[in-house]
Each structure stands twice: as structure tokens, then as C-alpha cells.
Specification:
Strand content: under 5%
CATH topology of the largest domain: Recoverin, domain 1
CATH class of the largest domain: Mainly Alpha
Order of helices and strands: HHHHHHHHHH
Distance between the termini: 83 Å
Helix content: 40-55%
Number of helices: 10
Structural class: mainly alpha
Shape: elongated
Length: 196
């Protein structure tokens, strides 16, 4: 097993900065006690320098029982015991995590994006524009998700629903001093000849 692979046996939350680089350097590997000292210090909830059953239970959530970790039954968790416990666990399901579902070889885009391609593209466009304006300043009124969904379901920029969303987005962009894409500026309502 390579030095990099060995260093990756510990969860990232327990790795100290530079540990992977040091583990692959030509110097001797970091002793388990040194590598796990920060994790053990975090687990020592009462600060007495020992990780007891109570300390372990306070941070273990749904991890294996203390007795499984305490290999020598001395009611204290040492670095080697913590390392053995971590190495014996599946990193995905350790501490109550849910395992991965089997990967489907068939990708059905309707599962992720219902509707036609045009509907998905309009929905993504309107949502992006709204998020960009909201990021700059959340104060200006923006179209809500149902309005965006209704406009996107028309599958055209020319529909009254899409024009209403674009008009609201255009005004929000002006309010937060962002340039609005010129091709998306809603058409001004045309006046009928003979009307003032």
C-alpha cells in the first residue's frame, strides 16, 4: 500500500494540515499517537487527558459501542484503539451515515429535470438571473419559484408569463446596478394606433 493510500485511511476531519504530504515524504511516518492527538483531545470532553466511556459517548453519535473501541478493556481509549476502530469501519456508513444506493447505468433526465429541454433551460435561466440579483442585494422584489415555474412551462421567452418574469428581473437588475442581458430585455408594450 502506498504512503498516500495509508494516509487516506483516516477520515479527512482527523487529518492535520500537511499530514498527507508528510506521510509521503521520505521521512518516517507520523506516529499514530501524534496523528490522532487532535482527535483524542477533541474527544476528551472533561479535559482530564483521557478519553473515557463518557467522553466517547458524548461525541460518538451512532458510532460503534465503546466496548468495541476499547480493545484492552481499560475504560480509556488510546490512539491505537481509535485508529483500529476507524480502520475497521466503512467511511460512508461510520457514525450513522447512509450507504450509497446502487448506481443506475441508465440516466433518465426526466428524474432530475421534468419537462422539455426548453422548459428546463428557461427555468434555469430565470433562476440564475434571480439568484444573481439576490446575491447582490436581496431587497428588490424578485419572481418567486411558482412564477418562474409557470413562465418556464410556456417554453418560450415571448409568453406573457415569461415577459412578466423578465420584466421583474430587469427591474431588479437595474435596482442593484447589474447589467441585464440586452437580448432578454422585455419588449415594451406596443400601443395600438389611435390610442394615446
Amino acid at each position: 500500500m502506498s504512503c498516500f493510500a495509508r494516509s487516506m485511511l483516516l477520515p479527512p476531519s482527523l487529518l492535520m494540515p500537511g499530514m498527507v504530504l508528510q506521510a509521503c515524504h521520505s521521512t518516517p511516518p507520523i506516529p499514530t499517537e501524534t496523528a490522532l492527538a487532535p482527535a483524542l483531545a477533541h474527544m476528551d470532553r472533561d479535559g482530564d487527558g483521557k478519553v473515557t466511556r463518557e467522553d466517547y459517548l458524548a461525541v460518538a453519535y451512532s458510532a460503534p459501542p465503546f466496548g468495541m473501541a476499547d480493545e484492552n478493556s481499560d475504560e480509556q481509549l488510546q490512539a491505537r484503539e481509535l485508529a483500529d476502530l476507524l480502520l475497521s469501519q466503512d467511511p460512508i456508513t461510520f457514525d450513522g451515515g447512509k450507504g450509497r444506493a446502487p448506481v443506475s447505468q441508465v440516466l433518465d433526465p426526466q428524474v432530475f429535470h421534468p419537462g422539455s429541454y426548453e422548459e428546463r433551460m428557461l427555468g434555469d435561466l430565470f433562476s440564475f438571473l434571480a439568484m444573481e440579483a439576490r446575491y447582490r442585494d436581496p431587497a428588490p422584489p424578485l419572481p418567486d419559484a411558482p412564477a418562474i415555474s409557470r413562465a418556464a412551462s410556456t417554453a418560450t421567452l415571448d409568453s406573457p408569463e415569461s415577459q412578466a418574469v423578465l420584466d421583474m428581473l430587469h427591474k431588479a437588475y437595474q435596482a442593484v446596478d447589474l447589467p441585464f442581458p440586452p437580448r432578454l430585455i422585455p419588449a415594451a408594450p406596443s400601443s395600438t394606433p389611435g390610442q394615446d
